[in-house]
Amino acid sequence: MKNTVVCGLQWGDEGKGKIVDFLTESADVVVRAQGGSNAGHTVIANGKKYVLHLIPSGILWQDKLCVISNGVVLEPQALLNEMSYLADEGINITPEQLKISDRAHVVFDYHKSLDEAREIGLGDKKIGTTKRGIGPTYADKANRVGFRLADVTEDNFWTEMLPARIEAANKDLADVNLPLVDADSMIEQAKQAIEQLKPFIVDTIAILHEAKKAGKTFLFEGAQGSLLDIDFGTYPFLTSSSTTSGGVITGSGIGLGVVNRVVGVCKAYTTRVGEGPFGTEDADFSDYLHDLGREFGATTGRARRCGWLDLVLLRYACMVNGVSDLAVTNLDGLDAYSEIKVAVAYEIDGVEYTLPPAKRSSWNNIKPVYKTLKGWNVDTTACRTWEDLPAEAQTYLNFLGQEADAKISYVGIGPDRDQTIIIE
Description:
single chain; Adenylosuccinate Synthetase, Chain A, domain 1; Adenylosuccinate Synthetase, subunit A, domain 2; Adenylosuccinate Synthetase, Chain A, domain 3; ten-stranded mixed β-sheet; four-stranded mixed β-sheet; 11 helices
């Protein structure tokens, strides 16, 4: 397998965990390069469901090296909880299997409190974050007041550096009448958690480059989706990291030229969690999927907003990621429909757009320009080859690939590993 980036092409929740798990069989090293515990990757392997947040999905294959690299913001206790959850499932993680970058920034409890304070301050214009402290941690990183895992070994970290930052955070919390962080309790809990993680914390840049020299194959696992990217997403309703394929380079320190292939993952329709514009949202379609027990957030449990496939956004996401291969998941979510709508353009104030505008006020006036395709009314979950798919489903997928200007290489028709069609 070529060195591959797997990235989401929508607002997250596209099924990246399944695709990463599927591709991991042919990889040696699986790398998570951005985001934090706000991500939720659901993988179903051998009939068992696993929900991962910080640990790369490749951990389900015991002979693979998994790396949480410098671009990730890491909450120590959340990671320990996830490791404990996997241990209960029979997956015991060793320092030989999992490496954590000493340059990764740490999410502390005050970051989560600041996240809540910011949402309160925004009132009815809130972003709809998971309140996991991800945005404030990235903000601290940019403002150069954050702390990396390497910093905890400084002599004055626990006695001076961290207490001073907690004091500053408490002043911000007092301004919005939120409970203050108990510095002593928070420091003791953080110290204990990081102490447990010490065997896993290393210079991952050196390890990745050693693997590169040894000819190992890399798989980079994206978190969230391209439309939540801090530069390319639907600003300001997005996350605080670079969720597109380019974020892999700065988020891992692997260097240019290593990535040979970009697999973009999208659903056969569109979903979104949280606030923000959603031009093709459809209440009836949402109700249909929710009634099936589908489309609830892996991290928050929130019902996802659902709508028809938006090719305006998909085209754009394929462009900014340099997508070479498409993985289309949840095709079976459309099985019951005799007619399927697809947005091929937007009409905004009388002007037609085939790519999304940057101006935020334009999103309030979107009128999707729909093309209607014939549905198939057939259960596709038993299909295992392209030829098994109904002709109408093949037509739908071919149209999607043509409009996105990327070849379709994988089709998901169910949650399990073996419910993935490979298209040569």
